[in-house]
Amino acid sequence: MQDRDLSTIKLLLVDDEAHCTKLMEAFLRQAGYGLITTTNDPRQALDLYQKVKPDLVALDLRMPHLDGFDVMRQLRQVIPAEDYVPILIVTGELDAPSKHRALAEGANDFINKPVDATEVVLRIQNQLQTQRLHNQLQMHNEHLEAQVRLRTKVVEQTQLDLLNRLVMASEYRYDAKGAHAWRVGRVAKLLAEIKGLPPDQVDMIKKTAPLHDVGKIGLRDSIIMKVGPYEPAEFEGMKAHTKLGSTILADSRSPLLMMAREIALTHHERWDGKGYHKLKDVQTPLTGRIVTLADAFDVMTHPCSYKKPLTLGEARMEIERHAGTQFDPELSALFLQLIDRDGETLLNDVTDAPFFG
Ligand SMILES: [Fe+2]
């Protein structure tokens, strides 16, 4: 306690007997305490507490209008649970049940009447020492929590950096900037949003959808770089990218990688069950159904080596036409709303994608 300046410690004394508060105040001033507020009207205790914000309250138990229990109840309601503000009950003879009740309702210690200078000072000093330790512990905990938050952020950012680099690596041979991948991420995010998924899921879909074609990293150049439509055998080779992607992303406990794997494996399924792995309607996870639409829309509306892009209106009609066969009908309807609302934006490259530009 010696390293704490007693003149800065704020004390609130509540007792209906003026001679009692005067005596205690005198003892405490003599001990070095400088900021002492007193009241002989318990009805003022709460207002005074809120005005003064004392470090400690000394409270008489038997008072008119409001007794010590009532005042203590009022104070405990406004003292934040994480703050340690000691309440000392100043009382004469107190039976055991009343003592138990006082302790149960938030009293930290007792001071006996008639008050004795040494006891008053020492009991208050003990409580302030406990308060100081409590505050130190709390500050230490807050520091540790801040450290954990910071480290967690670094780990999450590192994980995302690595995922984004994996996207770049997997797309590099045929789309060095990964423009298609980032656009699919953006469209999938908007579709997840309009579907009403929770924000954390929307964010995860935005981050993982660009990895949908990660398995293409394992395909031969003759397939990846092919100009023109695929022969049946080449198409079979192309289909392998879903399983390759799933293998690359397998066996992780990271929620991001687990979602990325799900998307990589299922983004070529069809609602009617005629997709790569013959999953039908909701057998395909929602993430896969969302990215199927986002991917198909982006492929339709951007040029490739053997076809011109569709206009927005043409792409809209294609989605409408394939709703319920190729695409999830409910998601298709939502996607049409998205096109009507944000159509032109959906076509633009993502300018804030990682490593872009
Ligand atoms: Fe794909």
Description of the structure:
The model has no long low-confidence stretch (mean pLDDT 92). Helix 6 (179-195) crosses helix 11. The longest helix has 55 residues, at 117-171. The protein folds into two domains: 6-143, Response regulator (Rossmann fold); 172-347, Hypothetical protein af1432, CATH 1.10.3210.10. The chain is α/β, with parallel strands linked by helices and 357 residues long. Strand 3, helix 3 (68-78) and strand 4 (87-91) form a beta-alpha-beta unit. 57% of the residues lie in helices and 7% in strands. It is elongated, with a radius of gyration of 35 Å. A five-stranded parallel β-sheet has the order 2-1-3-4-5, with helices on both faces. The two termini are 61 Å apart. The chain binds fe (ii) ion. The site of fe (ii) ion has 5 residues, from loops.
Q: What topology emerges from the helices and strands here?
A:
Layout: E1 10-14, H1 18-31, E2 35-39, H2 45-52, E3 56-60, H3 68-78, E4 87-91, H4 96-104, E5 109-112, H5 117-171, H6 179-195, H7 199-208, H8 221-224, H9 232-249, H10 255-266, H11 286-301, H12 312-322, H13 329-347
Parallel strand pairs: 1-2, 1-3, 3-4, 4-5
The structure holds fe (ii) ion.
